[in-house]
Write a structure and sequence with these properties.
Blueprint lengths: L3 H17 L21 E4 L8 E4 L7 H7 L3 E5 L7 H10 L5 E6 L5 H11 L4 E6 L2
Parallel strand pairs: 1-2, 1-3, 3-4, 4-5
Length: about 140
């Protein structure tokens, strides 16, 4: 015969086992593809666009709200320093256009790329920035 404490312990063990064997909810399925762009497009500034999902732009002035609305890019890629502009100019333009993606800055060898990343982010009002060092 079990005492009161043993009965409570047995009931607690049964409850734990019942919870452990409970089925989990099914995972959500990814949304079905539609005819519209899925946001996996990149605008490439100052480089040739080699990927099929990238659009090459030759100057900063070509990036405007109409282009962003049409392409819905998830990232804009630009060099840290170019002949006519630098990454800060591009970052401030994207902030003014309410760009919601990531600015990827291609930089030469740097001693502290994360510091440059933080500085661009701070100057551009919190825009997501990623600095990639080109060897």
């Amino acid at each position: 015969m079990q005492t009161g404490g043993q009965e409570q312990a047995a009931a607690a063990i049964k409850a734990q086992r019942a919870l452990a064997t409970r089925r989990r909810a099914p995972r959500a399925r990814p949304p079905e593809k539609t005819g519209e762009p899925d946001g996996q497009v990149a605008i490439v500034l100052g480089f040739e666009a080699l990927a099929p999902d990238a659009v090459a732009v030759d100057r900063v002035e070509a990036i405007d709200s109409a282009l962003l609305a049409r392409l819905k890019p998830d990232k804009v890629i630009c060099p840290m320093i170019a002949e006519d502009y630098d990454a800060l100019i591009v970052a401030n333009l994207l902030r003014k256009l309410n760009f919601g993606g990531t600015l990827v800055v291609v930089a030469p060898e740097l001693p502290n790329p994360r510091m440059v990343e933080r500085e661009i982010r701070n100057q551009a009002g919190g825009l997501r920035v990623s600095v990639v060092v080109k060897p």
